[in-house]
Structures are given as structure tokens and as C-alpha cells.
Design a protein that fits this description.
Elements: H1 2-12, H2 27-33, H3 35-39, H4 49-68, H5 78-95, H6 103-118, H7 122-128, H8 137-146, H9 152-171
Helix pairs in contact: 4-5, 4-6, 4-8, 5-9, 6-7, 7-8
């Protein structure tokens, strides 16, 4: 059992949003608690497009889950959700993702692109991003992932969502 835990922790080092063990197995809570680290300064992913893709996927995931998840949607402060939606708009604008794109499509494409990049296949990453949701075209999105700057609304939302989960924990 200890070996399994150590292997899981080793895998987390490669994926900036996979630190769900800190969320005790709850991916929404885990992503929220790690949001300041993973989204607080998105510029840290410059030159690391695989990690930038997962950070963008994390923002999509959090925004979608906190708006729709029956466990969290009723409890989340509406200002936190609004901040996340603004951050998602900022991230989508930077990466060239259509504003009205289905979050599930975006999440799946970014996840596949990240896995392809980790595997050393730029062609597979481009294929993963070859959907109508990515208006900057696959090559453009990959270039933007490679040069990810600090996104201020995203940083703000990262802090807010972590604080909100801290508030929810203290309330229980």
C-alpha cells in the first residue's frame, strides 16, 4: 500500500493538477486547494506546454464543476464562481479557445494534448487540439501554451477558490 502511495505521489509531480491526494481523493477539492500553486502564476509554465495544458484544463474543470456539481454548486460563493468564469474567459482568450466551447470538449482535448506532449508527440498533441473549440488552430494553441504568461484574472480566481474551500472546511 505504501508503494502505491509513493507511485501516486511521483505521478503527481508530472501533472500540476493531479495532486488530488491533498484533496483526500476528491478531484474538485484537490484542484481547488492546488489552484494557487498551479494557476497563481501561469507564467511558471512558459516553456512547459504539457504542464500549461493541464493547468488550463484544471481551470476549465474547476469552473465547470463548481457551477454544476450538486455537492459544491449550492455552497460556493457566487463571487468565486464569477471570478472563475472571468478567469476561464481570460485563459480561453489567450489560448484561442472559443468563448462558448463545451467545457467537456476543452477539458478532454487539453488532457490528451498534455499526454501527447509528455510522450514526445507534437503531432498527436496537434491532433488532440484539432476541434472547432480551438480557434487559434492546433499549432497556434501549442505555441501559446509554450509561451504562457501570467494571467492576472486567473491568479485572482486561484486565490479565491482556495480561500473558499478553506472557508467551507472551517464551516464543517
Amino acid at each position: 500500500m505504501m508503494l502505491t502511495l509513493l507511485l501516486a505521489l511521483a505521478g503527481c509531480a508530472e501533472d500540476p493538477s493531479a495532486n488530488y491526494l491533498g484533496g483526500f481523493g476528491d478531484p474538485v477539492r484537490g484542484a481547488a486547494l492546488y489552484a494557487p500553486r498551479n494557476l497563481g502564476d501561469t507564467g511558471r509554465w512558459a516553456g512547459r506546454p504539457a504542464e500549461a495544458a493541464v493547468a488550463a484544463e484544471q481551470l476549465e474543470f474547476l469552473t465547470n464543476e463548481l457551477a454544476t456539481n450538486p455537492r459544491y454548486a449550492p455552497e460556493i460563493n457566487p463571487a468565486v464562481l464569477q471570478s472563475l468564469q472571468t478567469a476561464r474567459g481570460e485563459m480561453r482568450g489567450y489560448l484561442g479557445i472559443a468563448p462558448n466551447a463545451d467545457p467537456g470538449v476543452v477539458i478532454a482535448a487539453l488532457r490528451r494534448a498534455s499526454e501527447a506532449l509528455r510522450g514526445g508527440s507534437r503531432a498527436s498533441a496537434e491532433a488532440a487540439l484539432a476541434t472547432a473549440a480551438f480557434t487559434a488552430r492546433p499549432g497556434g494553441t501549442l505555441q501559446r501554451l509554450s509561451t504562457m504568461p501570467r494571467l492576472p484574472r486567473t491568479a485572482e480566481a486561484a486565490g479565491m477558490v482556495a480561500s473558499e474551500f478553506d472557508r467551507l472546511e472551517r464551516r464543517r
